[in-house]
Write a structure and sequence with these properties.
Blueprint lengths: L1 E6 L14 E6 L2 E5 L7 H7 L9 E3 L5 H4 L9 E4 L8 E3 L5 E3 L4 H9 L1 E4 L4 E4 L2 E3 L15 E2 L16 E3 L3 E4 L6 H11 L7 E5 L7 H13 L4 E5 L4 H10 L4 E2 L7 E3 L1
Parallel strand pairs: 3-4, 4-5, 5-8, 13-14, 14-15, 15-16
Antiparallel strand pairs: 1-2, 1-17, 2-3, 6-7, 6-11, 9-10, 10-12, 12-13
Helix pairs in contact: 5-6
Bound molecules: fe (ii) ion (FE2) (2 copies).
Length: 264
């Protein structure tokens, strides 16, 4: 498996940074784009790497938030893998009380209408040895945090039910924002595929506002599964990453920068 970071917020000379996530996955010669960023960074970063947007035929959308789906407008894939509801309205309320629209942009929705939509309704294998979790139930007491709603008036609570993560048969877990919680995500994978021992996590863990209790629980579980390596990106949060680094001395933390590829 090769993973190339195409969109993230950490600046790097020659690349466009933005708050969002996009990863190009190359697995057993099958290429998948996992998320597309917010919209401004994907095209210039692909150009910088000499990757033609037209060469991206398969796109996985981890969830509908615009920082993961905005770049879809720059692509013309043949197939999109996502859970039903990926286009539903999403809003968030920040600490200052401001409401932010997070729904997939219309231009991206138009691209979605043009290609084959694979509804990931449940855990499934989409290519040899590559699985999507489908909707991730919040089965543990993990405090997933986040002030998310389906309406601008903030009356309908949003648990981002369409969120999916990706698992390989070789034990690599790829996450978008992990709004459902990394523990819930790991538990689902272990329940469906107990034979796959997850040793690597790549993506966002949405731990920016996590309580010390949640961080402790997360670290304890990652120690228990003997996590060997991770590249924590996007919404994980610098403080959470620093905490996990201190708490998981046996785990290698890869600082994946824009345009860089890691091989497993
Ligand atoms: Fe995000
Ligand atoms: Fe998100």
């Amino acid at each position: 498996m090769k993973i190339t970071l195409l969109v993230n917020h950490v600046e790097k000379r020659g690349f466009q940074a933005e708050f969002g996530l996009s990863l190009l996955l190359d697995y057993r010669n099958g290429k998948y784009l996992f998320d597309t960023g917010a919209g401004a960074a994907l095209a210039p970063n692909l150009a910088r790497l000499g990757i033609a947007p037209k060469s991206i035929k398969r796109v996985i959308l981890s969830h509908g938030h615009c920082d993961h789906t905005g770049g879809l407008a720059e692509l013309s894939p043949q197939a999109i893998y996502a859970c039903q509801g990926v286009t539903m309205p999403h809003f968030s309320r920040h600490d200052d009380g401001k409401i932010h629209l997070l729904t997939m942009p219309e231009r991206s929705k138009n691209v979605l209408k043009e290609c084959k939509f694979h509804n990931v309704s449940a855990f499934q294998e989409i290519g040899k040895g590559i699985f999507l979790t489908g909707p991730i139930p919040r089965t543990t007491a993990e405090d997933c945090g986040g002030d998310f709603y389906h309406d601008a008036a903030c009356t309908i609570k949003d648990e981002i039910p369409e969120e999916t993560a990706l698992l390989t048969a070789g034990g690599i877990l790829v996450t978008g924002c992990c709004h459902a919680g990394i523990l819930n995500t790991l538990f689902l994978c272990e329940k469906i595929h107990p034979e796959i021992k997850i040793h690597t996590i790549v993506g966002g863990l949405h731990l920016r506002h996590a309580s010390p209790a949640r961080l402790n629980l997360t670290a304890a579980y990652l120690r228990r599964i003997k996590l060997r390596r991770c590249a924590l990106l996007h919404c994980t949060g610098d403080e959470a990453i620093a905490f996990l680094k201190r708490s998981l001395p046996a785990c290698k933390f890869v600082d994946l920068s824009l345009g860089e590829t890691i091989c497993f």
